[in-house]
Queue: 2 jobs
Job 1
Amino acid sequence: MQRYLIRRFLQSLVTIFGVSVVIFLLTRIGGDPVDTMLPQDRITPQDIAFFREKFGLDKPLPVQYGYFAANALKGDLGRSYQWDRPVVELVVVRRFPATLQLAAATMLIAIAVGLPVGVLSALRPGGFMDRFGKLFAIMGQCVPHFWAGIMLILLFSVVLGLLPTSGRGPGLGHLEGWKYLLMPAFTLSSFSMAAVMRMTRSSMLDVLDSEYIKLLRLKGLPESLVVWKHALRNAAIPVVTLAALQVPILLHGSVVVETVFAWPGIGLLAVQAITKSDYPVVQAIVLYTAVLVVAINLAVDVLYAYLDPRIRYE
Amino acid sequence: MSGTADSVLLDVRDLRTHFFTRYGVAKAVDGVSFHVREGETLGLVGESGCGKTVTSLSIVRMVPRPAGRIVGGEVRLAGENLLEMDEKEMQRVRGRKVAMILQDPMMSLDPVFSIGEQVAEPIRWHQKVTGSALWEHVVSMLRLVKIPAPDVRVREFPHQMSGGMRQRIVGAIGLSCQPRLLIADEPTTSLDVTIQGQFLQLLSELKEQRGLSMILITHNLGIVAWVCDRVAIMYAGRIVETAPVVEIFHRPQHPYTQALIGSVPRFGQRVRRLTAIEGQPADVRQLPPGCSFHPRCPHAKDVCRREYPPERALGPQHRVSCWLVDGQGHD
């Protein structure tokens, strides 16, 4: 297990290196900050030269990457062009926690709703819960986030006046802060919740049909123990894979959802940074996201070994 | 039925279990009556699809729903009718009074829980034993079924064990709460031949030690001759002949029983061809009128095609349902 983890950790470093190269090049293909940052009507060639020199954009690309990588290893991801602030402070300290909070709440809702509904659907295929779950799942996967978000705002904020329209509010320390989290998290969770629900249902149906479930019932165990202890533990294994795969999809969806709800996370920041070709900010956001996804994948592999004793890493 | 004697443990009367499918009603079990005495082993023998397994699942009320339903009859265990119990009461019967061993040991154990936990569960649940007493009980059960190094093995998982060992663990689970009846549904079919013998030997020993009654479901007449006291032959959802094991082999009366015994190769006898039973096994969705066996029976008469034969007693324990058999037997 230990050797496996070390090997996986080294592989992760290679992945992150690859991501850093790709994102470095992609931002530079995406646009020139000179065009977006400087006032185009009263600009001199000297201004442009000064700007490029100040941010090191006059050097060849490999050299630029070298500086970027060397500084990144020291924990310095540069300064934002548009806000003139250290990127680490901007992205990690101010924005990343908001996105993590949203992502965690989203996963929690997706699993807390998707898992039990999936199990109940499998217990009575074709029953009320199964039909309701199916309808809900189809809607969750088809309705785009921006539309669902706007409809929720219309209903709960404008018509009913129950929840705030946007922003992060005073944080989760206050009861009021939770109200701000509710709609964005629910909107973002609709897709993953549907996926978890359907996967739980089909996985559960397979397990419930197996011989060992029959033997458990023959032992005289109550149905609650058979379903929630044995069947669910077995059915959860593919669901865990699926949930882990949802994390990148979810971070991707957060760009739209954060924009709709003005949630101050990296999704919203990414939109602002990309439209201004703010290279250091875009690089930092993608890099942190990559690290997060790699870390979650590693955590899931460890979780597997716990859930399924047949898996032993050499 | 002679099921009035006080030594009768299980008394099944006129059991009917039907499956309601899109293609019609399948009468998988259609009027089955038999009994098992204390300490007795009954062999339930027949071709695949004749209703052996459905009979055993009906006894513990685990017929696959919603298609399958027990539509009639009585199943009395020590006098109590299991078919009148609610689900809660049945949970106290399963595992505690009636245990069952399934056909495929490779699939019978939950892959993600340890052996110890799976043996411990019914003991903890039925007998409310916990802590180190539970642990000791589990280890002693594993020792009973001859698992080597039981105190190490309790911590292991099913995938770390061979098929024979897994089947012995299923046996340990079955016996853990000292049931009075053990139903073994083709327990050795998927085991290696060498392991089959060991497992049957173990079952017989445990049965003797614990005074257990057993129903052994099989299509292997060799196993029947070795392990069983009495045999019930099933065909198309009914029992066509029942007799002590010696009687069945020496004086089979029903043409189906005769054919079954004729299709077994015997050691030391040179036979050019084994007698196969002509035709296809009966389809329980579309049974022929009269005796279900008549389309395959070499001696079928007119009456066989019209009416199902009544059961006749040929001796104190020998019963047969066949028009060809008169009260005195016809050999």
Job 2
Amino acid sequence: MHLLKLILRNALRHKLRTLLTVLGLLVAILSFGLLQTVVDAWYSGANNAAPDRLVTRSSVSLVVPLPVHYRDKIRAVDGVRSVAAANWFAGVYQEPKNFFPQFAIDPLPYLAMYPEYRIPADQLLDFLRDRKGAVVGRKLADTYGFRVGDTVPLKGTIFSGNWEFVVRAIYDGATPRTDTSQFFFHWDYLNESARQRAPQRADQVGVFVVQVTDVARAAEVSRAVDAQFANSAAETLTETEQAFQIGFVKQTEAIVIAIRIVSFVVIFIILAVMANTMAMTARERMAEYATLKALGFGPGFLGSLIFGESLAIAAAGALLGVALTFPVADWFARQMGTLFPVFEVSAATVQLQLACAAVVGVAAAVLPALRATRVRIVDGLRAVG
Amino acid sequence: MAQSPPAVAIRHLVKAYRRGGQVVPVLSDINLDIAAGEFVALMGPSGSGKSTLLNLIAGIDRPDSGELRVGGTDIMGLDEAELADWRARNVGFIFQFYNLMPVLTAFENVELPLLLTGLGARERRERVGIALSMVGLADRMEHYPSELSGGQQQRVAIARAIISDPAILVADEPTGDLDRVSAEDILGLMERMNRELGKTIIMVTHDPAAAQRARVLKHLDKGSLVD
């Protein structure tokens, strides 16, 4: 109790210095949390992937399409429960900065494979009945104010021309980490239009999403699907949905690594600041530590005083930083619109923030504590604070 | 009747400091007995080694050679932890600049040494109350050092020095930072501690007036006792 009292009073002894140090820690912990959340957002697709879903694409490149007739051949492979075509549309809504993912899909099998997209039954029926209908995620709808019945014009880039879709359904996510920033419409509508506007793009599919009957057989089914098309003009590469998503992230891995490095650099900088503060503090109080030693207090007590003060300051900065991370992340997510489909501060990020603060608190106190506990009493008593 | 052992017995004590590559002798062949209950003033010019001798007796520095028994204990044979424990039980410190913890009240400063004793909170409170009453500061218990005058701070330091009832009080220039009136006040208080509580007091001072309050005067010059 006395030790705690002494720690807290010492921590508040130079209020401005302590306040500035806590502020520095707050900013560092907050920045670290946001950067980690950006990294998490990058991997959200991979993290949300289901183990029973595979993705079949051209073995040459993702931009090389596959013939639509592969759908029936894949469906016939032993271990396949369902297959759905999906094409990346890449339309522009009003202006290029309004980015959101758009997919032309086989509606029934595709949506059945994604039970995490919760669609009201009546809206789903309306969507299925309307070949120009679209399903939009809640986040996307909120961002652009889409409501059921609204017409959404998109300017095609891959599939040229002006396209119009009618919002027939809005889906919610089963969990807060479900991506609700997507826009789905009928693959048949895309294909029919492609036949008229750009026949060379007709009857082609970007990827097939494949659902397996048994997760344990995913690798075997992947091999069997690819074997069907080996030595053909359009060979395939089938992998789990997670591997497919990670493949996407790997294309921008350098950015992710840079963000990770920056997040830890921020922590290292605040560690240096904190270590300097604690060193200054210990130097000023050397005569007090020597007095305590003369009175009979051992190195354990002195070490506890210094580590306790350092950890108390680190804890204050960390708790404030963690508390602020949530509202700031919400604000950041709103500013980013649908750029990051999922931007949630995870429990792992909070744990990392607290762990970093603890490391900073301990590491900053090591040298001052060693110095205070090792100083000769007579030398310490001569020290001028 | 058997004679009681001296509070401090020093034989052939030697101490030198190393500065850079040089060895600077500070004390050479010191022999000194201080009887229990004595009030001794150590005087001498700057650099004569009087503070070093006081530090050795108080167990906050170690001699290079010789014998040093304090209260019958050969403190040269104690390791750091044992020495810290010995100091807590046997030595009270009075410093020139009081050396109070600025973040603790007068009460809490005086209570500090008792935290090492395992006494309960109530008993600690009673003892601190008595000690502060003895030094005339019962009404300033909740004051922080910055709210007290130099003389009052030194009185708090004296209360802290006697709180765990040590046999020996060591005082290094206890009046060096005080005006004449406060210095007289502190010296009177130390005399009382010696006379009424039987504390052995060893005081280093430059001030001849302060030294006059001691019963025994010892002079050091260039690391040797000269009388």
